[in-house]
Amino acid sequence: MAIVDVTVIPVGTTTPSVSEYVADIQHILKKFEDEGKIKYKLTPMNTIIEGELPTLFQVISAIHEAPFQKGIQRVATNIRIDDRRDKKTTMEGKLESVEKHLL
């Protein structure tokens, strides 16, 4: 299981706000989650997605395309992948690991 940190940036919008595009992406992620393929979490600056790496690449492709479907002509997508193969990792597990050291 891998975890990705992804930010999709539509370039050339008519307003500085991109919340409309973020909402579109969340609808796509919800569909993948409802199918049991991923888990995801929206943060103020990005979205974290957990799943099998091949599926995550499909998800990233789908959310990268979303702004183009609304007429945007340029999209920049930043991706950071954490693919640990010596043990199963989850978003919650990573947080719990850090929190143990805070006690």
UniProtKB/TrEMBL annotation:
Residues 4-99 form the Thiamine-binding protein domain. Coiled coil: none annotated. Signal peptide: none annotated. It comes from the Bacteria. SUPFAM superfamilies: MTH1187/YkoF-like (SSF89957). It holds the Pfam family Thiamine_BP. NCBIfam families: MTH1187 family thiamine-binding protein (TIGR00106). Belongs to the UPF0045 family. PANTHER family: UPF0045 PROTEIN ECM15 (PTHR33777). This is MTH1187 family thiamine-binding protein. It comes from Metabacillus halosaccharovorans. The lineage of its organism: Bacteria, Bacillati, Bacillota, Bacilli, Bacillales.
